[in-house]
Amino acid sequence: MDSWRIKMLIVALQDDVDGLYTIWNTVTDRFLGVNLGKYEAVGIIMDYKKDYTFEKALDRVEHPQPFSDIAKHIINGCEEGIYVKCPHCEEIRKLTPDETEKY
């Protein structure tokens, strides 16, 4: 694993309608759970973060990050910005600020 990666979980509310949560592990770049109820999410956080109390895990769930934070990690890892792959040469590059306005 790269040493520059932030070692954390991203706990995000999937949408405001169903109240379901998603947990993304930034160390392994994997989902720990999707479509989770509040207490399912708390349980997963407590299983992963052994030093978390119920109250601390519940606080993470009740104060979630935006789901877009997970999307950014999926697309870019920890580097901010939007990256694209050229279909002709297969080169990956970061979009300029002018180009990102289109997204």
Strand order of the largest sheet: 1-2-3
Biggest sheet, open or closed, and with what strands and sense? 3 strands, antiparallel
Helical region count?
4
Query: How much of the residues is beta strand, in percent?
Result: 15-25%
For the termini, the CA-CA separation is: 30 Å
- General shape: elongated
Order of helix and strand elements from N to C terminus: EEEHHHEEH
Quick synopsis:
The protein is an alpha+beta fold. Helices cover 33% and strands 22% of the residues.
Protein model, in words:
- With 103 residues, the protein is an alpha+beta fold.
- The protein is built from 4 helices and 5 strands.
- The protein has helices spanning 38-48, 54-62, 67-76, 97-100, and strands at 9-13, 21-25, 30-36, 83-85, 92-94.
- The strands form 2 sheets. A 3-stranded antiparallel sheet has the order 1-2-3, sandwiched between helices. The chain has a two-stranded antiparallel ribbon with strand order 4-5.
- Strand 4 (83-85) and strand 5 (92-94) form a beta hairpin.
- The longest helix is centred in the middle third of the chain and has 11 residues, at 38-48.
- The chain is elongated and about 50 Å long.
- It starts with 8 loop residues before the first strand and ends with a helix.
